[in-house]
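Thread title: Can someone regenerate the structure for this chain?

I was given the following input by a collaborator and told the matching structure tokens would be attached. They weren't. Posting the sequence so someone can regenerate them.
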Amino acid sequence: MATLGDGGTAIHHPDKRGIVTQRKALLFAGLVGLGLLAAGAALTVLDPNADEPDRSAPIEGPSQDRQDDLLAARSKGDPAAPITILEASDFQCPFCRVFWEETLPILDREYISAGKARLIFVNLPLPQLHANALAAHEFAMCAALQDRFWPAHDLLFKHQSAWANLPDPSGLFFAYADSAAMDRAALQECVVTGAVRELVQQEAEASFQSGIRSTPSFVIEGGLLPGAQPIEVWRPILDSIFAAKTAGQPPR
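Best answer:
Regenerated them for you:
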């Protein structure tokens, strides 16, 4: 496993910290159907031969209405917030857990709940590094179909060490479903039929094609911030973007 200092799990080593300075268009082509499009992002020059997300044969995915529901279910904050943050994450990535535990609560309190920013979770499981990641992401997106994404999200990160190395984590995931107040029968059907598998794979593929090579990575209004950065890194970035986008407007 390649690591970025204390910042992230990588398929290939990008620059180590901060917003990368080289400019390049970033297009989440596979996310257009979900309304997720970020252009003009700053990216690192990366190895084209790096490992890629799983590209299993696609299966029938959720309808457009279901996709819209899934987008809303895994978003935090006001859709009209001036700042949009896309979080490309892997539930089995230890640095993603660090972000969840240390930075996200403060980010939520100071920016998301305050109406300054909206956070959208983007699936980027790395099965070459994390054998149970794809199953975890499918579980989370099946939870999203029941509008229980964030409880499932929190349980997966909270108990990451319990399920990460299991030969088959599905039994534990179903136990988490009870804790998240989910309908077990609906969850079972979603998982068995692979109802969200194509969506997860498409997002991972789109993230890879856009140039993202590490988890967690964040696209913030066209800029790429890789790694589990502390809140001290986030504040000046978000404050400057917020000030620029709300200049001349009444205080929120």
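The two ends are 43 Å apart (CA to CA).
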